[in-house]
Amino acid sequence: MNYSEIYLKKNEDKRLKQGHLWIFSNEIDIKRSPLDQFQAGQIVIVKNAEKKAIGTAYLNPNTLICARLLTRKTNVKISAKFFHSRITTALQLRQRLFSKPFYRLIFGESDGLPGLVIDRFDQVFSVQITTAGMEQCKDTIISVLCEIFAPSAIILKNDSNQRHLENLSQQSVCVYGQLDGEVVIEENNALFSVDIMNGQKTGWFYDHRISRQQLAQLAPDQTVLDLFSYSGAWGIPAAIAGAKQVTCVDSSESALQMAKNSAQLNQLENNIQFQRSDVFEFLKQAREQRQRYDIIVLDPPALIKRKKDFKSGYEAYRRLNHLALQVLSNNGILISASCSHHLSKANLHEILRSSARHIDRHIAFFAYGGQGPDHPIHPALAETEYLKTFFCAVSPSL
C-alpha cells in the first residue's frame, strides 16, 4: 500500500511489541516525520527508529493518543474487505455467546477496531465513532454493516465527549433506514424499551448483563432499591424474578419513562415504583426516615472521567456507598459497581471496607462481577477492563 510513514523515537516501540495499540505524540520522531505533514484520520505505516515496519495505523496529529494500530501487517489495505473481516470475526464470537441478537457487536480495540463501538438491537445498529481515523472510514463501515446484516436502521450515536477531543462534530443521526421511536430488546428474560436516538451512550448498557442476572436470582421476596436505575435494567429482572417490591431511583425523567415503558411491557405495574430524585438526596432522606431495603444496587455513571478528577470522584463513590450501607437492612445485600476506569478494583474494595467499618457493620464479598463477554478485554490494554462489581453480604458487627 502507498501509505505515508511515521517513525518512532528510539525504544518507543517496546510497548507496541508487548501488544499495545496506542502511540502517543511524544513517542513520534517529529524530525523524521513532522506531524504537521499529516491529516487527521490519515492511514500510515508505523516504523521504529531502525526503520523496521511495525504495522498500519490511523493518525491524528492533534491529539495526545496520536496513532492507533489497526493491524500488525503493512501490506493490508484498510478497505471494505478489512472491515468485513473484523466485523464477521466479532459476529462469530457473539453468536457463540448469545442465542438472540442483542449484544455489543464491536468493542473497540478488543475487536481490532479502535475508536469504534457498535451495539446490536436485532436489526437496528447503534454506531459510536470516537476518533478521526474511524470517522474517515464511516461510509465503509455503514456499507459493510448493510452487506452483512441487511439492517432496518443504522444510528450514528456521535454525541460522545471523546469526539470533541478529536475535533469531530457531536450529533446523533439515522444514516440508514428508518427508526420509528423506541425499539424493544430482550435481556435476562425481560423486555426493555430502548430509546437509541436520545438515550445515553449507544442507548443501552449491555455490560452488566451477567451481574443483573445474578441479582435476579437473589431477588425473590426481597425489597430491592435500584439507584441510578436509568432504564430499569437491574430492577425489572429483579421484579420478574419475584421481588416483593422494587424501587427505581434516577434523576432523569426520560430515563424513568423508558423504565416505566419497560415495566408495562413485562406487566410489572404492581410491584415496581419509580422515583425521580438526586440519589444523594434520596439516600439522605431514606436514612432520616429509617427506611430499609433488603438489596441495594448502586451502579452510578462514571464519576471519574479523567485522572485529574480522581480525588473528588473517589469521595463521591465513598459517600454513596456509605449512605447506601446506612439504609440497608440487617443481613442485606449491597451490589456496588463502578464503570470508572480510573477507580480500580482495589479502590472500590477499600471504599466498601472503610465504609462498613465506619458504621460498625460486618461486610463480606461473596461474588464479583465484571463486564459481559460481549465487552472482551484486550490483554495489553488495561483501559478495556473498566467494569467492577462487588456483591456484598452485610450484617451487624460480629
Overall description:
With 398 residues, this protein is α/β, with parallel strands linked by helices. 29% of the residues lie in helices and 30% in strands. It folds into three domains: 4-71, PUA domain (Archaeosine Trna-guanine Transglycosylase, Chain: A, domain 4), CATH 2.30.130.10; 80-180, RNA methyltransferase domain (HRMD) like (Transcription Regulator spoIIAA, 2-Layer Sandwich), CATH 3.30.750; 201-396, 3-Layer(aba) Sandwich (Rossmann fold), CATH 3.40.50. Strand 14 (245-250), helix 8 (253-265) and strand 15 form a beta-alpha-beta unit. The radius of gyration is 23 Å and the shape is globular. The termini are far apart.
* Number of DSSP helical runs: 11
Broad shape: globular
- First and last CA, distance: 68 Å
What count of structural domains?
3
Q: Largest sheet, order of strands side by side?
A: 15-14-13-16-17-19-18
Write the layout of secondary structure elements.
Layout: E1 4-7, H1 14-17, E2 22-24, E3 42-47, E4 53-59, E5 65-71, H2 80-97, E6 102-107, E7 116-121, E8 124-129, H3 132-136, H4 138-149, E9 153-158, H5 161-165, E10 171-177, E11 183-187, E12 190-194, H6 209-218, E13 223-227, H7 235-240, E14 245-250, H8 253-265, E15 272-276, H9 279-288, E16 293-298, H10 310-326, E17 328-338, H11 345-358, E18 361-369, E19 388-396
Parallel strand pairs: 1-3, 8-9, 13-14, 13-16, 14-15, 16-17
Antiparallel strand pairs: 2-5, 3-4, 4-5, 6-7, 7-8, 9-10, 11-12, 17-19, 18-19
Helix pairs in contact: 2-4, 9-10, 10-11
